[in-house]
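Below is a filled-in request sheet from our internal design queue. Each sheet records the structural input a requester submitted and the sequence that came back. We keep these sheets so that new team members can see what a complete request looks like end to end.

REQUESTER: design group, bay 2
PRIORITY: normal
MODE: inverse folding
CHAIN LENGTH: 346
BACKBONE (tokenized):
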């Protein structure tokens, strides 16, 4: 998209730092022109904080299937309005919804822009927000009143879990299993608990499970294995949320489902998923896909943070000034067992 750029007193374009994955295994800070004007319907936002997530690390590792290099990463974003619009004031703190929908396809017309047929995700299909300033459609900006800049940068990944929980339907008093205790799994577990579910966690990492218990009070924990369905759990789980990103883990979840249950697939895998059809029908299981999040989910998360229902301090593992991120990115990518959320600050 063409746009005007700012100039310095000597007539040169003003520049800004951007976090770029140049190619798999190569991350560096590069400079780009600082945008000055945005087209109608779009808004300039000065970025304040950027959360790093599994998608960013997968891009660095060369594992993302929908991406061309080089790419400015970053889609968990908070910022302040650079220039006032009709409804947003200059300096106002906003959360950025990174899912840019077309507004025309069947999904968009049905009010499901999160699964738009032509969706473009900032930091994936087009350059993201790990930069000083970005242009975003005004409809993708949500006022973050009552939140800090760091909290606002954590809304997007929590909205993924909130959306998955909403997709599952009524959860009060339901026995829920969340497989995968990483950031998305934790977010899902937190919102399932807020809805009154009896939440259990399953993971292959003892460190992740211990952290979930110590920081968030999730005491019902299990390692993957066939011995889970014993005692009071012998009849299975009413709802299972998969947040592992593993086809093998998803397939292993089917035998853990109770009769009349739901299986919500939050993570995405490239592989085919196989399951035993007679068992699936016998249990009348529902398989539910959950993709991205909507404005409703973003608002749900922000209100939960305002109400003190989400401990964002416990979620934020560390903050990194943007000028230091290049020297730490590879280490962050390889250390995800106890790292919940690293946030890059501008």
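RETURNED SEQUENCE:
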């Amino acid at each position: 998209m063409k746009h005007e750029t700012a100039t310095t007193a000597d007539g040169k374009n003003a520049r800004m730092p951007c976090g770029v994955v140049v190619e798999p295994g190569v991350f560096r800070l590069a400079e780009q022109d600082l945008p000055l004007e945005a087209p109608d319907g779009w808004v300039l936002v000065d970025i304040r904080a950027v959360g790093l997530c599994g998608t960013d690390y997968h891009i660095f590792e060369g594992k993302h299937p929908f991406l061309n290099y080089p790419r400015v990463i970053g889609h968990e974003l908070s910022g302040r309005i650079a220039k006032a619009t009709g409804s947003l004031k200059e300096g106002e703190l906003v959360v950025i919804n990174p899912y840019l929908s077309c507004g025309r396809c069947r999904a968009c017309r049905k009010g499901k822009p999160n699964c738009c047929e032509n969706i473009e995700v900032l930091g994936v299909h087009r350059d993201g927000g790990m930069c000083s300033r970005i242009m975003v459609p005004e409809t993708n900006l949500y006022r973050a009143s009552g939140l800090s800049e760091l909290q606002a940068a954590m809304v997007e990944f929590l909205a993924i879990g909130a959306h998955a929980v909403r997709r599952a339907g009524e959860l009060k008093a339901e026995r829920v299993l969340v497989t995968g205790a990483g950031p998305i799994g934790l977010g899902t577990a937190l919102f399932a608990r807020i809805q009154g579910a009896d939440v259990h966690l399953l993971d292959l990492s003892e460190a992740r499970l211990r952290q979930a218990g110590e920081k968030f009070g999730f005491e019902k924990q299990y390692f993957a294995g066939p011995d889970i369905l014993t005692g009071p759990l012998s009849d299975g789980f009413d709802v299972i949320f998969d947040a592992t990103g593993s086809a093998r883990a998803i397939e292993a979840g089917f035998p853990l489902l109770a009769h009349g249950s739901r299986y919500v697939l939050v993570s995405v895998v490239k592989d085919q998923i196989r399951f035993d059809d007679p068992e699936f029908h016998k249990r009348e299981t529902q398989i539910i896909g959950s993709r991205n999040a909507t404005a409703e989910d973003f608002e749900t998360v922000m209100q939960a943070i305002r109400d003190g229902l989400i401990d964002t301090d416990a979620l934020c593992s560390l903050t990194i000034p943007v000028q230091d991120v290049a020297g730490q990115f590879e280490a962050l990518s390889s250390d995800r067992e106890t790292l919940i959320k690293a946030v890059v600050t501008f």
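SHEET NOTES:
- The longest strand covers residues 42-51.
- DSSP finds eleven helices and 18 strands in the chain.
FILED BY: M.R.
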